[in-house]
Amino acid sequence: MTLRSRHLLGIEGLDRSEILTILGQARTFREVLDRAIPIVPALRGRTVVNLFFEASTRTSTSFNLAASRLSCQCVNFSKATSSVSKGETLLDTARNIEAMGVDGIIIRHPAAGAPHFLARNVKAFVVNAGDGAHEHPTQALLDAFTLREKLGDLEGKRILIVGDIAHSRVARSNLLCFTKLGAKVAVCGPPTMIPPYVEDYGCEVFYRLDRILGEVDVVNMLRVQQERITASSFPTVREYRALYGLTAARLRKLAPEVVITHPGPVNWGVEMDFDVADFSQTLILPQVTNGVAVRMAVLFLLAGGEHPEG
User: Which CATH number applies to 11-135+291-303: 3.40.1190.10, 3.40.109.30, 3.40.50.1370, 3.40.250.10?
Assistant: First the structure.
């Protein structure tokens, strides 16, 4: 099965069957990554570019590795050394890169909607690697993949997303993805970090973490988006940690089967204490590993690759 669109611009544009198609393909590639030589010739001869206008470690490296595991060449774009510093527009940059013969453009940009703009104006397929505070679809897909590997079907599972909901593209994509997979989603955070429209996604809203923490199967902690916050959303880091942080004390109160995730990078001592890293149900590193398999699946499906066996 293929996807309806030749781009991946957000979870909003995917239906449940398409999400499951990507996750199913990712399962195949996850097995490939466990081989002694974790490479398949599925996209041999293809080229993609990482067009990142924001700093990234995990996502950029993950897409780079995903491409290389598929035998696809990946070119990394540097804003600092490009003609963007001379005033070149996003469209001119993309069209010049496309003219060099790339098949796909993976874009991260501070402006919401930038991937959608590119998709309307280039012939290459476009993957949204994060656009402002809008969406981060591959993060949601890898989170869903990781949770399904651990818990099985997400139908009926209670997932709590904690923290800076208003400024988090991960929160929006995860809300959409988990809900489409049948999970019951709740969000929790300071009132200043809960957008007024969030209940339109069919989720419950809580402002006291201790009120809901003991009733969920998954705790999805979010990074405080300091770079996107234009005004003080909470008085002090100490207060935020006391009210909304996954502290060592809260960790001890959790049921042993509760799963903990975080998209990274973690602000240790703010949204989570160091003790959480050693909790057996913390899936932060499996999320990173699974991210490569999920991004392999996305590139494979969008590029129309050959069967990955080999």
Answer: 3.40.50.1370
Judge if 11-135+291-303 and 137-287 fold alike in CATH terms: yes
What is the token pair recorded at 307? 């069967």
Strands (E), 225-305: 259-261
Tens of pLDDT, residue by residue over 272-304, are: 998 888 888 999 999 999 999 999 999 999 998
Query: Residue 226 has what pLDDT?
Result: 63
Annotate 207-227 with b (16+ C-beta within 10 A) or e (fewer).
eebeebbeebbbbbbbbbbee
Each residue's pLDDT tens digit, 68-77: 999 999 999 8
Q: In whole angstroms, how far apart are CA 60 and each of 91, 127, 305? A: 20, 12, 21
163: region left, alpha or beta (phi > 0 left; psi from -120 to 50 alpha): left
Report the alpha-carbon distance of residue 146 to residue 68 in Å, rounded. 22
Strand partners, 48: 74, 104
DSSP string, 93-162: HHHHHHHTT-SEEEEEESSTTHHHHHHTT-SSEEEEEEETTTB-HHHHHHHHHHHHHHHS--TT-EEEEE
Q: Assign 206 to helix, strand or coil.
A: strand
